[in-house]
Amino acid sequence: MLKKVINTENDYVALVLRLALGYVFFFHGMQKLTTMFGGYGYTGTMGFFTQKLGIPAVFAFLAIMAEGLGWAGLITGFLTRIAAFGITVNMIVAVKMLHFQNGIFMNWFGNQKGEGYEYHILAIAIGTALMIKGGGALSVDRALSDKK
């Protein structure tokens, strides 16, 4: 089972995708785990997810960990498919619970009630590609992979 999760080709497209998604989610993950970059930290995010959004605590915890640790898995290429899965599921849930009602466009000028979901679609697409391709070139998964 683990072999299926880590096996990956020496693919530089996967490298570019995982570094880009990992870089973006470093900032989002740190906001959720700490108060860096204007975030509410773990306690504030957990409260928002459980009290305001009504997400059960176990799923709120998993969502915070998916972003809070998933970026590191993507940057290093360690368990890439699992990290990409967590982030992809988070983005699907975010679209369904918060963003779909606001339309596709980001709220660049503050004219909408909230943010749209165009960013989320890109994150979902990149995450899905990484679940299919794996970590690719220069990844821990590749170093551990049978496909050398």
State the main characteristics.
148 residues, 68% helix, mainly alpha
Cα radius of gyration in angstroms: 16 Å
Summarize the helix and strand pattern as letters: HHHHHHH
Count of discrete domains: 1
Structural class determined from secondary elements: mainly alpha
> What's the overall average pLDDT, rounded?
93
Number of strands: 0
Count of DSSP H/I helices? 7
- Compute the separation of the termini in Å: 18 Å
Major β-sheet annotation: none
Spans where pLDDT lies below 50 across 5 or more residues: none
Helix content: 55-70%
In what range is the share of β-strand residues? under 5%
| Morphology call | globular
Describe this structure in words.
This protein has 148 residues and is mainly alpha-helical. The chain has one domain (13-143). It contains seven helices and no strands. The longest helix is centred in the N-terminal third of the chain and has 22 residues, at 12-33.
Q: Which helices and strands occur, and which strands form pairs?
A:
Elements: H1 2-6, H2 12-33, H3 41-52, H4 57-76, H5 80-99, H6 118-133, H7 140-144
Helix pairs in contact: 2-3, 2-4, 2-6, 3-4, 4-5, 5-6
Write a brief caption for the model.
By secondary structure, the protein is mostly helical. It is built from 7 helices and no strands.
